[in-house]
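Quick one, T. Sequence first:
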Amino acid sequence: MIRALNLYAGIGGNRKLWPENVEVTAVEYRKDIANVYKYYFPNDKVIVGDAHQYLLDNYQDFDFIWTSRPCTTHSRANFWASRNANNRKKYYPDFGLYEEITFLRHWFDGKWVAENVDPYYEPLIPADKKLGRHLFWSNFKIKNFESIDADIHKGKRNEWAQLFGFDLSMFEIETRKDQIYRNCVHPETGLHVFNCSIGILKSNNVSQFQLEL
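Structure tokens:
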């Protein structure tokens, strides 16, 4: 059984197709979003809380960690919208993303991946892989893959619901549901990345077995 930590879990797009032999703990700050996650993944342990702090306090309890810190302050679309509207609130980029990448690289002994958007600035830490409009930092090789993304410029909720396999129409959510779909990692991309990590985990197990012989 692989113990996986899914940070900033959202509605669980990245986790949707992970295999059954994975014990998942999901951390999501917003209760309304966490309720959607609980509905679709009733067997996962869902924690409503601060994912950034949870990682620091509990990283040693897991074999695999996926972190998808909120992308709003890094987004190119948000940047240009703010530049072109003087009355729109401005934000510093949230560099907690790079804190987590640095921490995982130096402290975590398992397999990990951090996901975010391709930002409007040069990333402070170069990404290891780009799939679609998502950047990935990881300590394992992510193979090429034709990523599926929601079109951020057009599309309807029912189309995105079908694309991602999540129907949000039955839930009361305090933010725009189209934005939730746009922020999702497509389940097939999530499975691809997870499978890449599992391949490394398996080869590590084989190497350990050979050493023990």
